[in-house]
Amino acid sequence: MLKSYGYAAYNSQTPLRTYHFERRAPGPNDVLIEILYCGVCHSDIHQARNEWKSTSYPIVPGHEIVGRIEEVGCEVDNFQAGDLVGVGCMVDACGTCPDCLEHQQQFCDSAVFTYNSPDPHTGKMTYGGYSNQIVVDRHFVLRVSDKLDPAAVAPLLCAGITTYSPLRHWGIGKGHKVGVVGLGGLGHMAIKFAHAFGADVVLFTRSPHKAEDALRLGADEVVISTRPEAMQQHLNSFDFILDSVAAPHDLNQYLTLLKRDGTLCLIGVPDQPHPAPSVSNLIFRRRSLAGSLIGGIRETQEMLDFCAEQNIVADIELIPIQAINLAYERVLKSDVKYRFVIDLSTLHT
To answer: In this protein, which residues make up the domain named Enoyl reductase (ER) (predicted)?
Structure first.
């Protein structure tokens, strides 16, 4: 076993603090990674505070990991020590079910998530990226280009693939009108990708002060969603709307903006249900209300390669690990542009 250390939540009420724990020793197909950077996802907060009622304490959050390989197992032939790599939301899956065979491991019933997930190797729970090192099966390790800032790559491992995957799945490209609801960690990546794919991009926000930034990120227009007259101008006009807001809100105001056969796709997971949408808003124009998780490993690597080609990274604020509790409070106030990333060189034993 490998002696490891990081920051953990010990319960739902107290701040995260230092935690010493053990990781498994690398096996033949494993990769040992020194963690350099880890993004701070809103789901880290949900789980640290047990808002989804599924947390096992102590919990070491973090699933937006970029690091450098220190050691590889004897059967690993696709990576070597010194490689810059990433680890996202998953670290294992069964490999034999229809989802795995179709490279959609995120939907595998036996998927092992990067933290707060039963670990078949140890019989305990997995621990995430707010730590000094991690051991991962080589099939769940992703290659990171040295052309990009590694700290700004980290959020691509969750926020990036969460927005890239649905845009690809629904075939978004030139000639499509795409809406993005919310400008945060997910929303800012959705704008960047939709713009890069050639779509006409409209941001919906409650905050007028975000308009300038949205245009800088690639939006063609910004609509203040609390102004009914502005929303009315877009009725029946969108091919696709990606809703990134992780709080309960009225979905009907966006469903009515879809054209016939348009899709509203939810990627934010609130801690309470959305109000039920009107069925008639779906039926009468054959609209669809859908959801999307992350992407499989193959698609995540595709996304990272696309980002390297297009020079796309997240907009980040780099923080020391000691600032993580303040960062959580600032995320809840939407006081970050647009993703905190922890510099793990600040983690001390």
So the answer is: 14-342
What are the Cα distances from residue 147, in Å, to 81, 143, 188, 326? 19, 12, 21, 31
**Mutual angle of helices 297-310 and 159-169, in 10-degree steps:** 100
Query: Do residues 61 and 128 make contact, with C-beta atoms less than 8 angstroms apart?
Result: yes
Q: Which residues in the chain land under pLDDT 50?
A: none
Cα–Cα distance, 244 to 165 (Å, whole number): 13
Rounded Cα distance between 18 and 71, Å, is 25
Q: Is 229 exposed, middle or buried (0-12, 13-18, 19+ CB in 10 A)?
A: exposed
Q: Which residues of 88-116 are buried (b: 16+ CB within 10 A; e: fewer)?
A: bbbbbbeeebebbeeebbbebeebbbbbb
Are 228 and 250 in contact, with CB atoms under 8 Å apart? Answer: no
CA 162 to chain centre: 5
First-last CA distance in the chain = 17
Whether the domain at 2-158+295-346 and the domain at 161-291 fall into the same CATH topology: no
CATH number for region 2-158+295-346: 3.90.180.10
Q: How many other C-beta atoms are found inside a 10 Å radius of the C-beta of residue 276? A: 8
pLDDT at 246: 86
How many angstroms from the chain centroid is the CA of residue 1?
Answer: 29
- Long-range CB pairs of 279-283 (<8 Å, 24+ gap) are 281/252, 281/255, 281/256, 282/255
Name the residue with tokens 């305990």: 124
Q: What is the pLDDT of residues 148-164, one digit of tens each?
A: 999 999 999 999 999 99
pLDDT in tens, 165-194: 999 999 999 999 999 999 999 999 999 999
180 vs 196: CA distance, rounded Å: 14
Q: Report yes or no: 52 and 46 within 8 Å, Cβ to Cβ.
A: yes
pLDDT of residue 349: 59
